[in-house]
Design brief:
By secondary structure, the chain is an alpha+beta fold. It contains ten helices and seven strands.
Length: 250
């Protein structure tokens, strides 16, 4: 328990030191163009102990809400039909709630690709749609297009194409990518405009709302809330710490 509490505090500290993400409400959204690298800068002065304590208390309250929601459903229900990579039977499930128009999500996608290549035998990586419709008008159409690509078993390739061409999100790009990766374009267009596509995105949005998520990208690792601001390049260390905190298998 002590180790897991230490991990929680580490998450809190990093979140305070490095804030990087797109907020769910316009008032909290970035007001300036985000650099291509989307690298967040730490504050000029480190947070005080009082600030750390307050942030840790808030994070623990949010973690309790997440844990309560997750406890109401089994693993299969939580994952649903979402796209996955890694090992289906892995004990640790890493979930990304993501928005195709969020520049921080694009950066995180690159880091997660490396993470899955390195640690995919130890985790099941799950992608959940969290389009921030109030600030990103193309986020939901892009999500539905990726879902349609998934109906032809090409979600991840299409996912990579959307993030690589984030500045061009729109109708022309959706069809262009479908042609480039060899999809049946007629089926693709039918699928992305279907009620089923909308229902899939809505289901992920409803889950994000249940979990009271505040922005993108937000990750869950083994049920642990990893909010925007914790750099995905540190996930290997987080995974090691999380696995060390788990009770030994009998």
């Amino acid at each position: 328990m002590a180790l897991k509490n230490g991990l929680m505090r580490a998450v809190t500290v990093v979140t305070l030191l490095v804030l990087a993400g797109c907020a769910a409400t316009p008032s909290e959204a970035p007001t300036a163009e985000v650099p291509a690298a989307a690298q967040a800068q730490p504050p000029a002065t480190p947070p005080s102990e009082d600030e750390l304590a307050a942030a840790e208390a808030e994070w623990q309250a949010r973690q309790a809400e997440v844990t309560q929601v997750i406890s109401t459903m089994d693993r299969a229900t939580f994952i649903g039909t979402s796209p996955t990579q890694g090992t289906p039977s892995a004990e640790v499930v890493v979930v990304k709630f993501s928005d195709f128009e969020c520049p921080y999500c694009a950066v995180a996608a690159g880091h997660m690709k490396d993470f899955v290549e390195e640690r995919g035998d130890e985790v099941l990586y799950v992608y959940k749609h969290f389009p921030l419709n109030r600030i990103h008008p193309e986020a939901e159409p892009a999500a539905k297009a990726s879902w349609a690509a998934g109906q032809q078993d090409q979600f991840w390739l299409y996912h990579d194409g959307l993030f690589a061409n984030q500045a061009r999100l729109g109708e022309d790009l959706y069809g262009e990518l479908a042609e480039q990766i060899g999809l049946d374009v007629e089926q693709f267009n039918r699928d992305r405009n279907s009620d089923a596509a909308q229902a899939a995105v809505d289901a992920d949005l409803a889950l994000a709302e249940q979990l009271k998520l505040r922005g993108t990208p937000t990750f869950l690792m083994g049920g642990l809330l990893i909010p925007p601001g914790v750099p995905p390049e540190s996930f290997s260390q987080l995974l090691d710490n999380l696995k060390a905190s788990q009770p030994p298998q009998e």
